[in-house]
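Figure 3 (text version): structure tokens given as input.
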């Protein structure tokens, strides 16, 4: 509800009405400013519920003055007991599966009630498997149980390759890009580059950086004479765009490798392509679908793969134009 929406931190999405979260039952009616930290949390995925519960135990439980003393004492005793240890990965899966049992589903906006709950009175097969491992840790060696709890991840999805599950239109967009070599991305880049970045960088062509790009720099980059910027190819091809081509719209001029690693660089390129009136709708929809698929499958680009491509991209940009040595005075 609006009353329970937590305070937003940096880079944290605002909560939606109806979103499922966790809160302290003892200080739920207390003004937010008077609650101890971690009184309310909104896990973005069922796999993150465990982290929210653990943060509550570590940060809020002892600090909350509204939790009865006897409950805190009981919790301390339970924590201090040396009993059968269950691996954390099974506890995480237990919380996630228990949430699904009551009808919680994952969306791009967080967790919501949206699926029929299990009303059979019996735990699901997956939840029962977790409980059996808790009772008998040696059961974790059972291969069938392990595969049930931790199904193998599709390597294609893990590497941000979605052609096999994307729409026909998106597959066609990717296929066309694979057949075309551009100045900044080659067909040979495809195996190690995410589908999203592969399609995105196909939408740009070279352009000379203007001197105005140096206004925030004290010195010129070493590759200034050979350096290329990026220009939206759809803007460049449009006759209607010629009147405003000098205003820098659809152009980006990173002046060093560090600039390519900045999050705003990719965001700016994406924002332009999605909003540019000259970009075909099918290209926009393909990029949107590829982003959505990555979010739905929880895929994050691996740092090594990202760095590897950005270094190649910078090499292509920095050495795109042929170097012309300046003429010396007095020479013909």
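Below: residues designed for each position.
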């Amino acid at each position: 509800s609006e009353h329970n929406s937590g305070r937003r931190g940096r880079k944290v999405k605002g909560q939606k009405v109806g979103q499922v979260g966790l809160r302290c039952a003892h200080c739920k009616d207390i003004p937010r400013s008077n609650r101890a930290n971690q009184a309310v949390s909104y896990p973005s995925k069922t796999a993150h519920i465990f982290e929210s519960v653990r943060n509550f135990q570590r940060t809020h439980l002892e600090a909350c003055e509204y939790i009865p003393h006897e409950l805190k004492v009981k919790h301390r005793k339970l924590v201090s007991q040396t009993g059968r240890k269950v691996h954390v990965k099974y506890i995480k899966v237990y919380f996630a599966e228990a949430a699904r049992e009551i009808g919680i589903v994952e969306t791009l906006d967080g967790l919501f009630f949206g699926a029929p709950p299990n009303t059979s009175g019996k735990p699901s097969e997956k939840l029962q498997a977790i409980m059996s491992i808790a009772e008998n840790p040696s059961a974790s060696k059972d291969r069938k149980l392990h595969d049930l709890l931790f199904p193998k991840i599709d390597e294609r999805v893990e590497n941000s390759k979605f052609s096999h599950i994307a729409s026909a239109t998106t597959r066609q967009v990717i296929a066309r890009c694979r057949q075309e070599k551009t100045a900044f991305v080659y067909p040979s880049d495809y195996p190690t580059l995410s589908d999203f970045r592969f399609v995105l960088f196909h939408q740009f062509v070279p352009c000379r950086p203007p001197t105005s790009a140096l206004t925030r720099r004290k010195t010129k980059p070493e590759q200034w004479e050979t350096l290329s910027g990026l220009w939206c190819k759809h803007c460049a091809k449009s006759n209607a765009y010629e009147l405003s081509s000098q205003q820098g719209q659809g152009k980006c001029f990173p002046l060093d490798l560090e600039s390519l690693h900045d999050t705003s660089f990719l965001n700016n390129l994406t924002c332009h392509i999605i909003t540019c009136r000259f970009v075909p709708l099918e290209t926009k929809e393909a990029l949107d679908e590829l982003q959505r698929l990555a979010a739905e499958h929880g895929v994050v680009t691996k740092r090594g793969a990202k760095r590897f491509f950005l270094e190649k991209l910078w090499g292509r940009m920095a050495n795109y134009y042929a170097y012309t040595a300046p003429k010396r005075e007095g020479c013909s």
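Strands lie at 22-23, 40-41, 104-107, 110-113, 204-207, 229-232, 251-252.
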